[in-house]
Amino acid sequence: MQIDDIAAYMAHVGAAARAASTAMAAASTASKDRALRALAARLRSSADALAIANACDIAAAESAGLAAPMVDRLRLTPKVIETVAEGCEQIAAMPDPIGEITGVKRRPSGISVGQMRVPLGVFGMIYESRPNVTIEAASLAVKSGNACILRGGSEALHSNLALWALVQAALADAGLPPDAVQLVQTTDRAAVGRLITMPERVDVIIPRGGKGLIERISAEARVPVIKHLDGNCHVYVDAEVDLDLAVKVTDNAKTQKYSPCNAAESLLVHAAQAAAFLPRIGAVFAAKGVEVRGCERTRTLLPQAVAATEADWATEYLAPVISVKVVDSLDEAIAHVNRWGSHHTDAILTTNHPNAMRFLREVDSASVMVNTSTRFADGFEYGLGAEIGISTDKFHARGPVGLEGLTSMKWVVLGQGEIRQ
Amino acid sequence: MQIDDIAAYMAHVGAAARAASTAMAAASTASKDRALRALAARLRSSADALAIANACDIAAAESAGLAAPMVDRLRLTPKVIETVAEGCEQIAAMPDPIGEITGVKRRPSGISVGQMRVPLGVFGMIYESRPNVTIEAASLAVKSGNACILRGGSEALHSNLALWALVQAALADAGLPPDAVQLVQTTDRAAVGRLITMPERVDVIIPRGGKGLIERISAEARVPVIKHLDGNCHVYVDAEVDLDLAVKVTDNAKTQKYSPCNAAESLLVHAAQAAAFLPRIGAVFAAKGVEVRGCERTRTLLPQAVAATEADWATEYLAPVISVKVVDSLDEAIAHVNRWGSHHTDAILTTNHPNAMRFLREVDSASVMVNTSTRFADGFEYGLGAEIGISTDKFHARGPVGLEGLTSMKWVVLGQGEIRQ
């Protein structure tokens, strides 16, 4: 779609979302769930229309020479469509977070004071060329009673437009305002600049994508951003430890999958266990082709290790590489994690209870773990039912963010004519 | 204090606070409470030193021709000192918010997942020339396990320096790092500009003061801000209502005190009650000298009312003035509050249960009330024990903010060697 005045267009999109957000906030659980099930049905019955739109994006991407893995992410295969349809049904089956009233207490003045969970209003989602995210974001918006404005990658525009038409039809099926889910219909990047600087229309921005993109959005946004930049996650093997457990968990944290943000990137080992532990985990890493970048003491125990530089302590490799450091104390380990980590997810492996508790308290990360793999830092593994994103900020939502991250608690006060003296 | 390089000075202040925040986060409840009680004792035993410092500020303010009410706010009278000392003791007596672990649940994978309440880290407080706020902010920081950087009004600098010395001594008394509470020792406004743009040193900014100051800080800050700009609070008198209750509560909401942000500024009356209610409340307002700015229908019932303009619907008077509008439905009342209000505190007066519930759900304000006075929107009245500020934002803390607003919930995961499949 050719749009000449991006500012006016985005103001229009924002106003439509804001207007629809009022009806969404007041929508019944039944109608929201009906919209989600209607969306699932429409996805399944629209395979042909989706395939045509998707083919258009794929052809353009291939002729533009897009790398094969990027083209693969674009594909709306029957399997991808079934997965997002099932996702809609799962979200429909979850409890409604909206309307919950908690902690109502009678005060000495006679009033009763509690809190009610309500939607934030309008969220903006900025993401890359994975059309399935369009449905995920729309379904989270519907369930949480928010409106949303979606800005997907430009390579997926035709697919996103086709999916968006299904979302709007499903909202109408359930008597909800189709405007509640908006899709930015231009690939002009100026639209993103407007989206993140409209506090009167948009309450929060959720970016997904590369670190550079997210840093730029965070720097320029005039509304809160739910984001994580890095997952430089640590495993610390304490002085008292079950070595078999330590080998198994460290292996899993690093090698079960290299690309997720919750994979371990750095291993700290207490000096008392270095000679026993490092050769064992070193053999695992060698067998799996994981490069070790170690401190000097690590290198005396693991000849295959190359010398780590300071930059290694701060690096999220997302690859078969790990930095390894021998430390002399729990204090040194905690200080290292807080200094070099990214406040995402860090684990201690120990049999010592006070050490476990100190690590939990003092490591300043969104998820802190004892005797288990950092790979568990995930909304589904935590039981949130759905994951909107992961936050490494401390304000509002922290760590894996579920539907509640798209809500706020307002105060409700019930009286019988009480007045302030 | 003459400081030439503000950027370097603020970086130093921020680094000291950040370094101290680690020890504060790990501090025991006993040592934090010991520091608070030591501070109360030092305040009481330092009356002479405080009087000398305060006299210096008062003399400068008077010779600069500061208005008398402003000079009064500056005064550290024995009563003010006793009040803040008691405040420290009250905060010491409150439960420690830090370390609470909630919602631990076993997951199918075998891990147990819950959340632990921890400090945010470092907050910056920017306030006007009320030296008592220095002690309030410092004591909230100590109890919540945060470090803080205080930037009080320049007219109170000598008083604040004297109070700060007591805070640092009290921290030392309890074995806590004196650097945990920092006071900006320059009146150069560039220091504020630095304070609000150091995300690596400061996690959140809490400004107190005029709307212009808070708007400027919000626009320029590179960290989250806990704030409210306006308290344009509404009372809506529904079609079904106890008229005696409505007169009593409306009177209290408007006239009990004119200056607080939770005082009512606008009155909406359902048409079905206008003829019965408006003359009664009009007589109350006339007797108390409250000016009424009304819509046309209001003016036919209240001859004393002047004509309201559109600007009146958006105005927080903080004075004996109220805008009054007759509405034809609950929908119109809710739409008016959401359109013109400031999302602070709004009340419905009604005997109709469905209408009460709709108002609670659909009015998008930090506090929504039924049959009671907006004046109750207050941290102490809500039972928070202490109030850091009031937030009209929806992100993180909303409404009256207690110690919990200075904390975040991180995830704790307890395992026994579980790995991700």
From TrEMBL, chains A, B:
Its main location: cytoplasm. Residues 13-283, 312-378 form the Aldehyde dehydrogenase domain. Its EC number is 1.2.1.41. Keywords: Amino-acid biosynthesis, Cytoplasm, NADP, Oxidoreductase, Proline biosynthesis. It comes from the Bacteria. The keyword Cytoplasm applies. One of its GO terms (cellular component) is cytoplasm. This is Gamma-glutamyl phosphate reductase. It comes from Rubrivivax albus.
